[in-house]
Amino acid sequence: MRYSADRDRKQNKSRLATQIRISYLILLLPILVFMIYALYNLWQINDRYNGMLNSVVVASEFSLDFKEDFDYETYLLIVGNVSSEESRLPLLLSDARSVVEGLKGVTDTVDNKKRLASAEKYLNNLAGYISKITDNLGYDDRYDDNILIWENDVQIVTALLQETINEYIYYENRQIQSAQIRAREFYLNIVKISMAILGFILLAIGIVSVLGPIYITRPIEEQVTREQKQLRKAEFELLQAQINPHFLYNTLDAIVWSAEAGNQKQVVKMVGSLSDFFRSSLNKGKEVVTVREELQHVRSYLEIQQIRYQDILKYEIDVPESLFGYEIPKITIQPVVENALYHGIKEKRGGGTIRVEGSEGEEDFIIRVIDDGSGMDPERLLEVQKGLTDKDPEAKKIYGLYNVNERIRLGYGEEYGISITSESGVGTTVTIRLPKKLTEIVKK
User: Fold this and answer.
1) What pLDDT score was predicted for residue 219?
2) What predicted TM-score, i.e. pTM, was given to this entire model?
3) Contact predicate 314/352, CB 8 Å
4) Which residues contact 408 (CB under 8 A, 6 or more apart)?
């Protein structure tokens, strides 16, 4: 039993930890997903923006310097200030081609890609013009031809190239502006989504704060309830162990007294009733019995006590047979009857009567134990009523009634159990209320 309880406790602890982790994940998951999404998009926007900005800077430098440098270097070559080997023209063309190739990998617009293709074509034309000028340098009478090539071809093509690159820069700037607008919209969306997630988290926290304790603490409450039931069962068994020897001792003492008095019939009756009483008490270890079996147990008890207290005790059992098949916790009525005898009838001069009766409702049934004994004054009645449900150990001075009430409430719910009414000098009525549930035997 202890090993099983420890195992259940460990399982409940593990289940509780799992539920707490799940609650954390439910709250953190949308935040993590949103953070990954936002960071990825921000990285893409930043990378794209930096690429476009870099392409504009490179293209601007190319546009400002290339035409002037290329035209001047071509003129120096024509007039003979530099030789073809010393000329910077091949280097300028190579650098320009590198710039154009680099810009191709940056832009993603169709028009700008076409402009770069045109720029590449212009560079090829310039290379052809320089080749022709270099060839003409080998002749003394082609100076004018080279000047015409420089004025009509080279300067026009470098101008077209500069215009093309300027258009590229213009449209790339527009792309940057569009990217800035999209980035601004994205940032605004991020703010809106962040506010929505914050609202969701606050709402989730509110829901978890209300439902979480119920959901998370339910295994603990169930475990506590099970342990309480086991504790009440142990207390009940302990009470039985204390009552039965005491009752057995008194009954055997009465049997001995009857035997010595030569009252054989009374001895036989008491032994038979005692046998029936303990047979009902054991009842094969069952915790729940039928009303019929419980009434038989009470009848055996009252028969024994009537023989012992024949001058002061009378009893009646009037319970309709329609209730006999319903279940009732074992040894529920007998402690109430015993209480009526010892605290009601015995304390009243002249004796009295204990009556056990029953009635049936739509969903429950009632067993009443009524005595016309000494009764209780209002203060004592309030103390007993409070003691039935009081968790303070001092309240358990009324052990029998308290145990019966606790077993019923733990087994069937808070709405069932014992209630007491009493009037000093008139008597006491104890009402036992139980749900209408057929036992397995009756169901079959």
Assistant:
1) 62
2) 0.48
3) yes
4) 329, 332, 416, 417, 418, 432, 434
